[in-house]
Amino acid sequence: NYLFSVAEIHETIGKAAEASMREVVGKSKIDEALTTGKAQIQQDTLVLLQSILDQYHGGVQVAAIQLQDVDPPEAVAAAFKDVTNAKEDREKLINQSQSYRNDILPKAKGEAAQVVNQAKGYAQARLNRAQGEANRFTATLREYNQAKDIISKRLYIETMEEILPNIEKVIIDGKGGDRVLPYLPLERLKAKSGAAAEEQKP
User: In sequence order, what DSSP letters do the residues of 114-126 get, joined into one string?
Assistant: First the structure.
């Protein structure tokens, strides 16, 4: 077949390859033909070329189609370059955004987890303190119920210990006689009380 079915087989293969390439590229987008679509164009061209040669009974098996330099037409070369640069810038920004996202998200999640743990710890500490105070109150109440007189006196004494140091005291000796009216220096006590009040004013 290679020798007898097709005259000028080399020229026929070249023209068939050119026709196949034009048809496939004509159906493709220009940016795909110049960038990411090369592999698909090569595969589609190979299939179409092999189909044409089989129809001619050329007896030729096409092993591969390899695109070399693919350039846009001169009339649109500058515009295509601008488009290509814009796409590259877009991809660069997308990659930068993705990198920033991958960096900031783990940090944000870590900080959020830390805040949650701190809040849980604070809540647990408050709960423990409240439970401790409740237990102390319950224990005091239990003691009070068992010895009310003693506990009442103890509470009275503790209260007096807190109050008495801060007030003016006058001690009267009971041996002076019940029939004698004790003399209290009311004017002096009143003066001291007024002076203390003046000192406390801002």
Answer: HHHHHHHHHHHHH
Q: How far apart are CA 180 and CA 178, in angstroms?
A: 6
Q: What is the DSSP string of 121-183?
A: HHHHHHHHHHHHHHHHHHHHHHHHHH-HHHHHHHHHHHHHHHHGGGS------GGG-TTSPPP
The two three-digit tokens of residue 19, written as one number: 């026709």
Which amino acid, residue 110?
A: G
Domain boundaries, the chain: 1-70
Rounded to an integer, the average pLDDT of 188-200 is: 55
The CA–CA distances, whole Å, from 79 to 6, 24, 86, 87, 176 equal 44, 23, 11, 12, 120
Q: 52-68, pLDDT tens digit by residue?
A: 888 877 777 888 888 77
**Residues 21 and 50 sit within 8 Å (Cβ to Cβ):** no
Of the candidate ranges 14-28, 42-56, 64-78, 98-112, the one whose mean pLDDT is the lowest: 64-78
Q: State the Cα–Cα distance between residues 147 and 159, nearest whole angstrom.
A: 18
What pTM was estimated for this model as a whole?
0.36
